[in-house]
């Protein structure tokens, strides 16, 4: 057989089927469009599922594609076998009521013989047990009967992709690689043929004859039209034609491995091949996934990507690589794949940045976590224990960021077992706790101690983020102790500290306290009287009373806090300039993620007022105003014109923070040195926390860029979900001087860099016009009134505003609760997504009733999941009232039942659970 590159094989395939009248369809996203049953696109036919069922009008009757796919079902064996990959490309040709078995078989054989140049005597085929028709077609095409093998449903009945869809019997093509590839008994027994577990016969093409539509319940119904769905793994075909034993030895993957060799200084050989293969495979999956806007996260697809990055980092470490490394492969990956997928070249810098940040996040605790695991296993071995307890495995997850699956894999390799049920129990317990529990413990730890003069902490954090100190007091479980050991939670008090203690609305600092090789993770900093309390967990070693320690504040988090605190001051000044001098601050929250500012004002803000306030702040940012601080006697500070909180208590000396002519306030918080550090400011929402007061939530710096990138991603996904042509949505916007396409994330980044602070106003206008255009398009595409209302449901600004104005507030949890008539579950989910983009801590409790049936959809954002909210558990209790069933994840759950007259009671039950959990 003649050597052919991966690129050459793909081009040959698409050109061949194009010559046979097939439409060449580009690869769809790795996010399956409109298919909630799939986490990723796992096969070439996924994007064509509606065409097989006859659910939509056919744009063509036959097509071909080269589809990017991700499957992680066999993740643990990737790298250990010759052919397993999590990312792969699938060649496929498809017929939707056009041709069927005869043409599909003839095309496959013709392409194999005359284009791939596979010798005819090396081709074997399999068919479904009773498919005599396929057998006869193969024989007529020239494949002798002795090379046609019948196999059962497990091997030769395919589908569907997901829980439902087109499926049917199939026929597979195999390449006979010769008896030398067979097992020890295969060559002499004469029984070896396709279906044997040896490596002699390798399948390279699967032809599925779609005849049925499988429902979610498993029922097989005849399709309106028969169809053809074929799949041929591009890497698998290349391996066979290039006559190598592993897909990792094919030309493209070999190039990635060579880059790893060059960057690492290690050689790809028998002892290192598993490590090289895992890094090679996972880097591809991550590269393509982030390219399709799947970002590392704690749930869903994002969790899979995070796990792949961390698994690759772990295998890189075993090669001696202890710094971020995976991101360095992006240039090679771009060079290989941008010819087939040109959009990846445009997104390469962003992909590289996302991977590097995720690697840095994980590597901060990886080494310590691995040491902790080795110590744990050593102790278990000395006690003759073989099962890792849930409390230990969960600590590796919660403290060191080890995904459950990665810990399981590591302990199994060492010969230990892993207790999943105990891990789940620990996870459930953890969801009932939050960082606020530290504050509840604070008084118990320190009552009667902090009012003594010997516990005064000197704060050095205005000028430095690092420093040395002496441990003065240690607390554990409410009592003074002499030491804190690895795995123990506690509180450390030192004589001087750069850690800012929560106050003035600004959250406390995070970071580390180190004594030699011992390390304490500061998870919060609080203040009582004149003492700074460093609350957290000993990661390794032991911290003892009197130790000389080094303190290090998390600098990135501190910078983000400074951005948002300084942004709060600029916002306060802008509000007084735009709305009037009656505006006074009533409260604030300054976090790394966002700022919240409450102020006195009698009416909601208009869009024009919000625009002016935003422009005022961004104008101050663009001016690059120096931020100056001084400590003054309180009376002098008041006469200087500095603003203060009306009900705040101040000492005789106060710290005043000034920003030129735009802001001057009493403030003890940390700030930027120049307003240009803030970069960008954007208002997320405006609402009312109570009569006579208004509330603004806003973001500063990089989160502004992320916000607009995410917003345009949501719009792009909605266009994809409803199978719309994107050009129809934004087609006339260019005439308004807006744009000629939805901005991709890297284009959003470029706009910020080129337009600076004016980018916020520009992109907000693009977003508004796109939302209006999409709503209009959805309405015009559907004549059926109910479907039209459902599709435009989540983009109805009046509905969203109405629901936001009627939200229930329990502590800092916002609840949107409503019952609709005849609205489908997908529309309820889309509506919840719209509200989640408006509020950082929102729980959506939505219901719909139609006839004698009822539907419930409960959703929240991940901030509430972290605080212990579990939509699946809330839904379960509500459905007991409706006599229904359903379930879901912590962030989303769906179910249905009867008794629609009990819907209000069912929703109220969920509200009461939140009240019991969070107060009120």
From TrEMBL:
Principal location class: cytoplasm
Quote the record's binding site residues for Zn(2+).
565, 569, 667, 671
Keyword Isomerase assigned? no
What is this enzyme's EC?
Answer: 6.1.1.7
Q: Does the keyword Methyltransferase apply?
A: no
* Reactions catalysed: tRNA(Ala) + L-alanine + ATP = L-alanyl-tRNA(Ala) + AMP + diphosphate
Q: GO MF terms on file?
A: ligase activity
Recorded coiled-coil stretches: 341-383
Q: Which NCBIfam families match?
A: alaS (TIGR00344)
This chain's function reads: Catalyzes the attachment of alanine to tRNA(Ala) in a two-step reaction: alanine is first activated by ATP to form Ala-AMP and then transferred to the acceptor end of tRNA(Ala). Also edits incorrectly charged Ser-tRNA(Ala) and Gly-tRNA(Ala) via its editing domain.
What's the protein called, per UniProt? Alanine--tRNA ligase
Name the source organism.
Leptospira kobayashii
